[in-house]
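Self-study notes.
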Amino acid sequence: MYTGLIGFILLFVIALIGWGISEAKYKAINFTRSEADLDEQAELDEAAKRNGYQEMNIRDVKKTLCIKGYKAI
């Protein structure tokens, strides 16, 4: 009679337990980037600037986006 309700409550409890575990892991694990990662990121940024890469905001993306749908084919 109440199987749907019991299932929903059980799903909610499992989701809360999973959320609690993920929050605990987030607070327990301290992530820091190594010097090799930072150096590699700097090299990638320099290479992107040499090749003319420019980060776009949402307005620039909308200008260059092709959204013609079926007509684009």
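Second protein, same conventions, sequence then structure:
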Amino acid sequence: MDGTLIVNTPAASTLTSTNRADVTPTLFIDQNQNEVYIQDVTIRNAIDWESKTSTGQALAMRQRGKHTIYKNVALQGIQDTYYLNKGDATAYFETSSIYGTTDYIYGDGTAWFEGCNINHIGNTGYITAPNTQDNYVGMVFNNCTVDAPNAEGDFYLGRPWGDSPAATYLNTTFNNLPNSAGWHAMTTGCKLRFHEYGSKDAENNVINLNPRSISALSGTIDSDNPVLTEAEAATYTIASTFEGWTPQAIAAQLTASAPAISGTTLSWTAVDGAYCYAVCKDGAVIDFTTATSYVVTDETASYSIRVANQMGGLGEASDTATGVNNVNGNSNGNIQSVEKVIEAGRLVIKKGDRAYNVAGQMTK
């Protein structure tokens, strides 16, 4: 999340009270733009980001498509940071971070948040504002952590925007506790599907959920109990939420074993499911290849491999190999000279009577 930052700072002169959902999004995934995969990036709406005080909607992401995966992604904003803006839109977040103060995870689609960090910035406010349609699951937070250092006891899990709003918190760690009621009023007359189970505090103590209440929200008589039983909580799974879609498997990260250097050849074992490999020199990616070997020439560098899954997401770097003692020699210690020359405008690496291009392919 730290390496790439995408920022939108809309000019104030372009904003009105009715166009912010259209004008402010930093990124917009429209309907029929399905199967989008985003990894290792921070997406920020800069409106009010410095002041941390909302002056209105400021979307980092507006999504209307289906099957979007966010892996190691940070969405940063103050109000309405993430808008899931279609009833059948679906999203899966894993080990990601969402920031905001007011209704910063909202909309009418279905999203599962697995092992994510919810960063509540303000001294009051609401995490979710769903307007889920009937028969859709809504927002589900599983094994997530909530930080609200400025709002201990004064923020809420969510409030109803419309339709049959649904938000479910499972096995959440609250480093700062919300208001004891949990939920806040907004739109009245909705069938409320606000749920919680297995919440713990920063010391891993089970939180007493008996004070959780939706009585002040003026929902319909058939609204759900805000505290789930163990059996009810167990019905919430990724498989049941996304029938026919396996986002956890798609987002799985791949890792290579440590590469080896023999002479000038860096090599590693093939990884099942790899789309390609990133060759890293001193921690930075220098090239991509579908092969399992690569010619290296810097005897002072350390090399590692990162594996791309089928969506292009790079896993963690392997252990490193260094060529300090053998990049100019073969595996039995016999030293051979390596020469780098330009031939026909291209870099050629010569070792004895053999020549290689920069991709490690022998040219003669």
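Instructor comment on the second fold: DSSP finds four helices and 29 strands in the chain.
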